[in-house]
Structure formats: C-alpha cells, structure tokens
Amino acid sequence: MELITGILTTAFLAGGVLALAALGEVLAERVGVFNLGVEGLMALGGVTGIIAVTLYPNPFFGFAMALLVGLGFGALFALATVVFRANQVLCGLALTMLGSGLAVTIGKSYSGMPAKATFEKIIVPYLSDLPILGRAFFSQNILVYLIYLIIPAIISFVLFRTRHGMNVRAVGENPAAADSAGIPVTLIRFCYVTIGAALGAGAGAYLTLAFVPSWSDGVVAGRGWIAVALVIFAGYRPFGAVFGALLFGVITAIGYVGQARNWPISPTFLSMLPYLGTMLAMILPVFLWRRLRLGFTAPAGLGVPFFRDER
Amino acid sequence: MSGLQSLRLVRVSAVSGRRILAARVLSFIAALAVGAIVLAACGFDPLHLGTQIIKKSLGSRFGLEDLGLLLTPLILTGLAVTVMMKIGLWNIGADGQFYIGAFAATAIGLFVKGPEPFMLLLCFIAGAAGGAVWILVPTLARAYGKVDEIITTLLLNFVALLLVYYVATGPWRDRTTGTVASTGRVPYEMPDFFGSLHWGFVIALIAPVLFGLLLRYTKWGYEIRLTGANPEAAHYAGIPVRRRMITIMLLSGAIAGIAGMLEVTGTVHRLQGGISNNYGYLGVMVAVLARGSPAGVIAGALLMAIILNAGIILQTQGLTTAAVLALTGLIMMFTAVADQFAHYRLVRALPQAAATAAG
User: Fold this and answer.
1) Any idea where the domains of chain A sit in the sequence?
2) How far apart are CA A308 and CA B8, in angstroms?
3) Do residue B11 and residue A228 have CB atoms under 8 angstroms apart?
4) A2-114+139-299 adopts what CATH topology?
5) Which of A64, A236, A287, B145 is most buried by its number of CB atoms within 10 A?
6) Nearest beta carbon to residue B166 from set A89, A225, A266
7) Does the CA dihedral A134-A136-A142-A147 come out positive or negative?
8) Residue A310: its pLDDT value, please?
C-alpha cells in the first residue's frame, strides 16, 4: 500500500512534465503541424524559469516567463513552417538544436543551483483524506491540478464542443476544404502552433521549478521526444495525452523506486524503461485491438504544408 | 503603389536545382550574418573567427583530413535517411543504429581473434547486421501495423545510447589505461590512405553512387521509386509494397550501422558514450538538404562537415559546444525556409488579374 502510494505520487509529479508538453503537441498536430522542436522548447522554458525566479523569486513569474519565451520561439517555428511552409521535420530538428544549445549557453552560470522559488504543495481539503489518491494526487503542487484536470478540460471543450473547435479540426483534416469554407487556415495554424509551443516551454519550467527542481545540462533528457510519441499513443486527444503521460510517470517512478531500493538491475536499464514502454504502448494496441485504433487516426493533413495557389 | 500592384508573388511547384542552390547560398549568408551579430554581441570578433575557420579547415592538410573523417559518417547516415525517404518514410533513428553498429563491431573486435582483413570484414558485417536489427521492430510495426516509424525509430536512439554507455562504463570498460567511459582499444583498424583518413571514406563515397545507380537502372529501384511516389498505385501495379518497405528499412538501418562500424575501426578505435556525435540526427539534415538525391547526399554532407569542422575550430576559440549546436540549428532553419522561397517568383500581372488577386 505504502509502495503504491509512493509510486503514484512520483508518477503524477513526473508525468506532469510529459502531459503538459504532450498537450501542447496535441494542439499543433490537430491543426496539421508536426512540431519536433518540443525538446528544444522544453530546454528553453526550463532555463527561462530558473533565471526568472532568480531575478524575482516567485514560481508563477518563472512559469509565465517560460510561457512567453515559448510563445516567441513558437512564433518563429510557426513563421517558418506555417507562413513560409518550410519542411516541418527539418525545422523541428533545427528548433531542438537551437533551443537546447541556446538553453545550455544561457544557463551555464545557473547550472546545478537549486531553484530560488518552487511550486509548493497544496493539500486539497477533504479530498486529500481519500485512500491512496488523496496522498498521491490531492497533495500536489497547483500545476499538477492544472495539467491533469483544467488544461485538458479546456482543450477538449474547445476542440470537440465548440464551432471554433470544429473549424480547428477541419484545418488539420483537410485544409483545402476548410479554406473553401472561409476558415482562415494560416491564421489558425499559426496561433495553435504558437500556443502549443508555449505549453512545451511551460513543461520545461515545470521540470525546473516543480519536479527536479533545478537546472543542469541535459535535464530535459529526451522527455520532449517522449511527449511527441505520447500524442500518437493518445490518439491526438487531450485526456488521452494526460492518461498516457501518467502511465509513463508510473514507469519512471518504478525506475526510481528500483534505484532507491537497490534492485539487482543496473540503473541504466531502469532508465531505458520509459522509452521501451512508449514503444510497447505504440505497437501493442495496434496488434491487440485493431478496431480500437480506428478512432485514433492522425489528422489527415498532418505534416503537409498548405498552399492555397496549388489547391 | 500602382507599380507594386502590378507585381505579384506566384508559387511554382517545380523549380530548378540552380534556383534552390542560389536560395540556399543566400540563406547561408543570412544565417551567418545573424550568427555574426550574436557572436559580436557576446564579445567575439566574428571576422577573426571566420578567417580562422577558413584557414584551419580548408587551408591545411590536417583540416582536410578532419573534413574527410567527418564526411564519412555524415554521408552514410545521410544516405541511410535518404534510402528510407525514397519509399516515403522517415528514419530519425539513424543515431541509434549508428550506436548499435559501433557496438556490434566492437564486440567482434574485442572478443574474436583472427587475421586483420578477415576480422575487418566480420566487423563490417556485424555493424550492418547490428544497424538492421536495431530497426527491425520499427520495420515490422510499420509494415504490419502502420505504426508511425518516426517515433519508434527515434525512441530506440535513447535505448541504444544507454546500452553503449552501460557497456563502455561497465562490463567492457578499459581496465588497462583507465580511460573514462570507454572500452579498450579495438585491435583491428581500417587502413589509412591520406594522413589519418581511412578507406571507410572511400566506402562512404561509393555507397550513395551505388544506391543511386540501383535506384535508376534496376527493376527493384523502379519499384521503390513508384512505391514512394504513390503506394496505392504501386500496390495495384502488383508491386509487393510491404516486402519492398521491409528491405528498404533494413537496408537503411544497415547503412547507419556501417557508419558506426567505420567510426570505431577507422576513427575512434574504441566504443565510448558519445561516439555517435549526433551523426544520426545530422544525417536527417543531410538527407533533407540533398532533397532525396543519393548523389546530393555527398554535397549535403560536405556542407554539414564544414559546419561541424567550423564548430570544432570555434570551440578552440572559446565557444562552447552548445553555442555551436545553437548556431547549427539556426543555419538549418534558414535553409529550410530558403528552400521554400526558391519556389516563389515575382511576376508582372495584368491590372485586372492583380485586382482579383488582391480582392
């Protein structure tokens, strides 16, 4: 019991990083843009968060600054891929290199220092008395509640319950048809890619202000890539992304517990678990439940730049 | 205003290689200008750095040798990605296949004894097989379950990195010289022919040409090209799409594995944690720069090698690896955008046409 609660507590905390980044990627991919720059955006957000709280010790300030930096670099990426319609895979990889390199360069003098301000735990009255879940979920920092409940609820509502959301999905499925219907394809793509990038950078700030909490080279450690993979696993659905992230939080937590309790496995192999788990989670469902995948297909326009004059 | 109105931008879908090249040269200059401004702002002298790079990388024998040593893995990983692009798939996992190719070659080199030429051949086969094995699961998942290969190949990079790190710091650690995070020296070496440049460079030069010829002049190559252009049509034409896809993916993995094998036996002579030096990811860029042309891979790799070589020189001048990485990212972003700009052309439109275009 104690072990399960411990694993779940760490799982919610660790999964939050992936969940927020994956939610951002859901936004980008729903409008048809494949953003492989998440890893770089997370690094930028992480270092921004740390620098911001060093200047003004308030975690919310740090998080907000990370979102702003994410918006800036997201706009740059959207300018290249949506407005100029450059190759999305190449631009994404370039953004990862640019972001990771820049973050390490800026963050050199902050490396290894603990964050000057971190997100504190908020214990929800009554709910925190629940067995297992009370300690594991309702005694976390405010970002965990935002990431697991509020942000996916907002995204879900907007995407699937509003007219605007229908337009947004149309842009991702068939931009040419959406354009004929008078939907501003380029504008919607630009905005959603940029907001998605901001969430990616926010995930980096969550990492350095709530999870680790400090900055060092390589602190992102491939989480950006896992987030991209999760989106596919989640069938491009916000709550799917959150659920997937939690699952990988659990795998990561088991690895931590294994290290802490000196299981007779090298920590290197425990570190492989999240990547191998993601692989399995992508492959197994396809072969086990073929029917299930029907509702989980990618937006038809994903990765394809839209040229009005080549319609 | 009226003069401006009669001009408008038109997108042309097919453009000549020369236009693309011109756009790229411009974008490269633009990226360098941005980089120079940033460097100047950080207190470096961009002009001095620039002359250092040209003098040390292209103006000296050592510089040219280094360029060749960088070109070898870049051409091969670039080719690995290009091979898969030909059938419409992405291999972002060349880095992992590179690691496992190096891993397999090291395993043979350290633990099997035999005459050198035979052992090198064995290492070569092991490297190719290692790379192919590493892409096997993504291949089968893609061929039989349509599981996105971009992510599955990519995730295995991290597993490969961890595995190599594990053996290099653990069971295969060098116990004689005590080098940190590295295995002992692999006793079998690719022979050199120009300073420290080894015959792997020649293999790397031949491989894209060979693949290009296969693609162009064989039935198999024609089937690959058709499948890449239109898988549905290829299927109805009776081409075994799934079989072709599997061979191409395994071939791609094998080529990246060979790159890893050559890096161990030709350049580094040991297996160590950072041996891939991001060659796999850079290979994706080389392939995109080459625009799917096997011969273009050599040109794309040359540009990349010059950038990397410049990066090494910049590091001796006090710039960090991270700063160089950021600069490379910037150049790539500019290149990607420039490729699109090459598709646009200013044309003079009739006043009525201009009016409808504006409205």
Assistant:
1) 2-114+139-299
2) 15
3) no
4) ABC transporter involved in vitamin B12 uptake, BtuC (1.10.3470)
5) A236
6) A266
7) negative
8) 55
